[in-house]
Design goal:
By secondary structure, the protein is mainly α. It has one domain (about 1-225). The protein is built from eight helices and two strands, in the order αααααααββα. The protein has helices at about 1-25, 30, 45-70, 75-105, 110-125, 145-160, 165, 185-225, and strands spanning about 175, 175-180. A two-stranded antiparallel ribbon has the order 1-2. A hairpin with a 2-residue loop joins strand 1 and strand 2 (about 175-180). Helix 1 packs antiparallel against helix 3, helix 1 (about 1-25) runs antiparallel to helix 5 (about 110-125) and helix 3 packs antiparallel against helix 6. The relative contact order is 0.14.
Length: about 230
């Protein structure tokens, strides 16, 4: 159970960091160039959006560092993860408030907000007595579980990047054009690289999972033969 929860924690944190990063990148246009996209209602609040976007990038980078720390079993990883999630919630909440006030919609930031809440609740769950003792976040997984978790996070993050025009597109239509398509090339390249890298890690560490089982079978056969 402890190993499974640790894997889920790494996957959730990694996916959240990628989601936050794509959200920050996607906010650049509305934060610095709303005039170019005929979003004049945003212009008086450009400063607010710019600050929120900058801190969204900060939350994403802290989240990526926290994911690395969880994989390596660093003592600071949990605190970094919690900090990144709280900062991500603050930036998402700020953008949702002003977007709802100015555009009458909170999409697609609301998706990041709710997913961040879910991830934060999961990390808080890991601190509940009875569960806390079973989950070891301060030691690296020597059985390949950490690598497999990173692989799964990369695959899910890649899928998230590749599908961004579909789930973020409806809230980014301007004069009949999907503004997300301006990032189509980096989203496609980045998403593809993450998926391929994730598949490689899963294949690589699948053998690591199988090794202990094989060793156990050999040991059992040897024991039976000696008996």
């Amino acid at each position: 159970m402890g190993k499974s929860l640790r894997i889920v924690a790494i996957v959730l944190m990694g996916l959240n960091a990628v989601h936050t990063l794509t959200g920050a990148i996607g906010s650049i246009c509305i934060s610095w160039f709303p005039e170019n996209f005929e979003m004049m209602v945003i212009v008086p609040y450009k400063g607010v959006y710019q600050i929120a976007t900058i801190f969204t990038f900060v939350a994403a980078f802290i989240g990526l560092a926290a994911t690395y720390g969880l994989v390596r079993g660093k003592k600071w990883a949990y605190s970094a993860a919690a900090g990144a999630l709280l900062l991500g919630l603050a930036t998402a909440g700020t953008k949702m408030y002003f977007s709802n006030m100015l555009r009458g919609s909170t999409a697609p930031t609301n998706m990041r907000f709710y997913f961040t809440i879910f991830t934060l609740l999961f990390f808080l769950l890991l601190k509940i007595p009875g569960i806390r003792e079973k989950v070891t976040l301060t030691k690296p997984g020597d059985d390949g579980s950490s690598g497999a978790a990173v692989g799964m996070a990369m695959i899910l993050g890649g899928i998230l990047a590749l599908t961004t025009p579909f789930w973020a597109g409806p809230s980014h239509i301007m004069n009949g054009y999907n503004l997300v398509l301006t990032l189509q090339i980096p989203l496609t390249l980045g998403g593809s690289v993450m998926i391929l890298g994730g598949i490689y890690l899963l294949i690589k560490h699948r053998a690591a999972f199988a090794a202990p089982k094989t060793e156990l079978k050999i040991t059992n056969l040897a024991t039976t033969g000696n008996a």
